[in-house]
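Lab notebook, bench 4. Still working through the backlog of constructs that have no structural model yet. Next entry is a single chain of 309 residues. Request: give me the structure tokens for it.
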Amino acid sequence: MTNETSTADKAETTDETPGGTKRPGRTARHWRAGLLRGGIELRHLLRNPKEMSGHLSNVVVALLIGAYISDDVPGTHTPMAHLVLAGFAAYLLFQIGLINLPQILVTEREEGALLRLRATPGGIPAYLIAKCLLVVVMATGTLALLLASAALLVDGPLPRGPGDWLTLLWVTTLGLLAVVPLGAAIGAVLPNPREALALIMLPTMALLFTSGAVFPITSLPVPVQQVASVFPLKWMAQGLRSALLPDSARAAEAAGSWELPMVALVLTAWTVLGFLLAVPLLRRAARRESGSRLTARHRRAARSGAMPA
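Model written out:
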């Protein structure tokens, strides 16, 4: 019994060649391939001025809004600009996971990436790891740039001690875990790049204005607050406000407190849901891909003028 258990444990971590030499297990190979692919995609991103300018423009918009607002949060002495900047920081993370990532996935599917993954052992897990790495680096880099430039240029908020820095770290990490797999799942079912932006932009913009990211959530009707509390953006923004704003700003929260345990619970639930959906939906999308389907889509796009004939 002991020998059988030992053999099974080894099989999970290593594969054995016919000659008896051991090589890394499938999970390790997926991670290595995914990280390698993600590193290559990061280098391509950094060398693409057009792509980088899109992320920088979001930071500029947030800084302009922060510089324009001068009032305090009602019932507190916290500048409204600080609340908006904290909420906008959460929205940037949310946007990269639920707008940018699905667009990337749909575009690459149209270019035949999922079709190629069908012929690659472990292609889907490695592909997901690469996209997660790309999105995490994009999001954390954009967040760091926003907070640093806001602190320097418009007296923006920063964590005040080790506890607040720790809260900023875990809320950012858990928030990305909540939206990145969900964005991958959405990207697997969207029809094409031309419709993707229209289908996902309106709901995300609605969440931006109903989740307390740009003004105190207590100023919204109670039913709107209840609907917003189902989605991760409301809790990401609340968690980041707890890390960036003073405790006196809790008066502007619906519960009069930061509710950090609830922040962790809701974001964890969305993380689990996203991972349960992402891999099966991407595998289903890859199975449905074929050369004839890809050629037919290209012909339709050429006839509509969306791509060269």
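Notes after review: DSSP finds twelve helices and two strands in the chain. The beta strands are 14-16, 22-24. Flag for follow-up if needed.
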